[in-house]
Design goal:
The complex is a heterodimer of chains A (113) and B (118).
Chain A: E1 5-7, E2 10-14, E3 19-24, E4 29-37, E5 43-50, E6 55-58, E7 61-66, E8 71-76, E9 85-93, E10 102-103, E11 107-112
Parallel strand pairs in A: 2-11
Antiparallel strand pairs in A: 1-3, 3-8, 4-5, 4-9, 6-7, 7-8, 9-10, 9-11
Chain B: E1 5-7, E2 10-13, E3 19-24, E4 31-37, E5 44-50, E6 53-57, E7 65-68, E8 75-79, E9 88-95, E10 108-109, E11 113-117
Parallel strand pairs in B: 2-11
Antiparallel strand pairs in B: 1-3, 3-8, 4-5, 4-9, 5-6, 7-8, 9-10, 9-11
The chains are: A mainly beta (113), B mainly beta (118).
């Protein structure tokens, strides 16, 4: 079953604009991770944020985590056409989740020239 | 780091046939995961190994599915008596779990095996 839901399901922006994707989840987590997937390819890890962290940056990526609302957001600044992909959040649960990641349904991002 | 390798990339089979997929993880990684992904959805967990031990299986993994990881190296996923509902992308991922840090390891994914059951 899917733990998280991303919002929006699809997002289309112009190159240079910022893209914001949101993720909501249901159970208490140890950490939350964001992955990117190009069409027909595997997923690539982008960033990990632990449950005791509120914000994290990596290059043009900014991730926030609000454990009280069970939500996270991924901001991509100054987007490029090469950022076109699907983006997934994934959670590592504290209990009952074993050592697996549970993925959300994804946001399809299209960056147009 | 040569990455996670999956073979074949594509497999078309007729309903009722058996299929086997192979995954070669990153060599120093002790954890190996299998996920299944259908169009427009996120990956769904199937099973995972710590070294050669299969430690967890999803309820999605019916008795037609079996996975092995002999000697804690490569892994195979076999589907017996395939059904059209088995059509999906099968993704393998590996990670390095250190003592006390098991929850925090990012997964490294292969490019998947796309299965089509006709």
């Amino acid at each position: 079953s899917q733990q998280g839901e991303e919002d929006p399901q699809a997002l289309s922006i112009q190159e240079g604009e910022n893209a914001t994707m949101n993720c909501s989840y249901k159970t208490s987590i140890n950490n939350l991770q964001w992955y990117r997937q190009n069409s027909g390819r595997g997923l690539v890890h982008l960033i990990l944020i632990r449950s005791n962290e509120r914000e994290k940056h990596s290059g043009r990526l900014r991730v926030t985590l609000d454990t009280s609302k069970k939500s996270s957001s991924l901001l991509i600044t100054a987007s490029r056409a090469a950022d076109t992909a699907s983006y997934f959040c994934a959670t590592a649960q504290i209990t009952g989740g074993g050592n697996k990641l549970t993925f959300g349904t994804g946001t399809q991002l299209k960056v147009e020239l | 780091d040569t990455g996670v390798s999956q073979n074949p990339r594509h497999k078309i089979t007729k309903r009722g046939q058996n299929v086997t997929f192979r995954c070669d993880p990153i060599s120093e990684h002790n954890r190996l995961y299998w996920y299944r992904q259908t169009l427009g959805q996120g990956p769904e967990f199937l099973t995972y190994f710590q070294n050669e031990a299969q430690l967890e299986k999803s309820r999605l993994l019916s008795d037609r599915f079996s996975a092995e990881r002999p000697k804690g190296s490569f892994s195979t996923l076999e589907i017996q008596r395939t059904e059209q509902g088995d059509s999906a992308m099968y993704l393998c991922a590996s990670s390095l779990a250190r003592m006390g840090g098991s929850y925090n390891s990012p997964l490294h994914f292969g490019n998947g095996t796309r299965l089509t059951v006709t």
